[in-house]
Amino acid sequence: MSALLEVKNLETFYGPIMAIRGVSLEVQKGQVVTVLGANGAGKTTLLKTISGIMDPEKGQILFEGDPIQGREPHQVVRRGIVQVPEGREVFPLLTVEENLSLGAYTRSDRAEIARDRDMVFSYFPILAERREQEAGTLSGGQQQMLAIGRGLMLRPKIMLLDEPSLGLSPLLTQEIFDILRRLNKDEGVTMMLVEQNAAVALDLADQGYVMELGRIVMADSAAKLAASEDIQSFYLGHA
Ligand code: ATP
After folding, report:
1. Distance, CA of 101 to CA of 85 (rounded, Å)
2. 102 vs 209, residue with greater confidence
3. How far is the CA of 67 from the centre of ligand 1 (A)?
4. Based on the domain organization, do 116 and 204 belong to the same domain?
5. Residue 24 above 60 pLDDT?
6. Where would I find the ABC transporter domain in this sequence (predicted)?
7. Distance (Å, rounded) from C-alpha 54 to C-alpha 71?
8. What is the mean pLDDT of residues 48-56?
């Protein structure tokens, strides 16, 4: 079976600085794949290159077998690749409901959009309670939920999540990851998740990659990575 998303020998620069140094990885349909790495490893740059916000200098990004590298972000979104950005960039002055409606901007099927909004509310009941509230007045965790919900409104074939645990308490992180797990299992949403929080990410993921200084240095099943000594000492904080 060919991969839903395949990245081959990708290189991305900021001017003279090479941030992605020959990265290759695969995501199969239905999987959760996580990319772990410390601050500055290149995780955000990798997602930005896949979603078309940055152009790679070299390499290929294949989606459903078609090369998409160098396409504009709106073209990438229309293929079904949806990025949920780091820092929960919701529209602060719009209500929860308006944010979700904007999420569906590529679609015109009103009845289906309403159904998807109800699906988002069923996964995130707090958003239903606060549907009339301005997004800027939500807590950090609720804004993260809204950012994920807005991504879901595009019916993504793959959702790219940039550090959903950032700035959240362990309890809220667990709550959000439990919901991501249900979205994967029950709705079949394929996910690529970049995280510094290796413990929660490996617990959710099927496959994992570890990035250091722009390169992939380890690749394995999430279970094997979680059991590896290097991961335990560097990323899981075990002695
Ligand atoms: P973080 O967790 O902080 O988001 P990251 O793993 O996502 O880290 P990137 O943000 O992708 O890492 O950064 C990768 C490398 O590219 C780092 O060395 C960083 O300093 C550099 N970099 C990132 N953004 C820029 C920029 N706008 N201009 C120049 N260099 C940048």
Report:
1. 18
2. 209
3. 25
4. no
5. yes
6. 5-238
7. 9
8. 96
pLDDT digits (tens, 9 = 90+) for 67-92: 999 899 999 999 999 999 876 789 99
Residue nearest to atom 18 of ligand 1 (CA): 40
What is the DSSP secondary structure assignment for residue 137, as one 8-state letter? G
Residues 58 and 41 occupy one common structural domain: yes
Output the CA torsion sign for 47, 120, 222, 4: negative
Which of 10, 14, 35, 212 to mutate for ligand 1's pocket (most ligand atoms within 8 Å of CB)? 14
Domain span holding position 166: 5-80+156-236
The answer to whether residue 105 sits within a structural domain is yes
CB atoms within 10 A of CB 109: 11
Could you give phi then psi for residue 83, rounded to 5 degrees? -95, 130
Q: Rounded mean pLDDT of 141-163?
A: 93
Closest by Cα among 196, 159, 186 to 32 = 159
Residue 191 domain-assigned? Answer: yes
- pLDDT grade for 105, boundaries at 50, 70 and 90: confident
Kindly tell me if the per-residue pLDDT of 162 is higher than 90.
Answer: yes
The type of residue at 165 is S
Look up the pTM and report it. 0.92
228: its two tokens: 């590896």
